[in-house]
Amino acid sequence: MSKHTPGPWAEDHRANVASVSIRGANKFAVCACKYKGPDGRTTGDSIAEGKANARLIAAAPDLLAMLQEIATCLQERDIEPGLVKQARAAIAKAEGAS
To answer: Regarding beta strands 29-34 and 19-23, do their DSSP bridges make them parallel or antiparallel, or are they unpaired?
Structure first.
């Protein structure tokens, strides 16, 4: 069982104008996505990339739960064993297994 911050996670744009925080259901920050580009400047592209990263990270607990359900469903029905193996590998990676 994964020991990550409980979901759902949500974006919090109030934290800083140069980044967006991701907060768990317990309101603690999970991480922050900075809007600054490699040169240290904030641009339209770096803001768009930071927001896209934040959306993906905020969705992580939901995506993990859904992948677990799909993998179980496929395995129980003996459908696409190769996909089940890939799904289980992705789940293990998300849960910190080597």
So the answer is: antiparallel
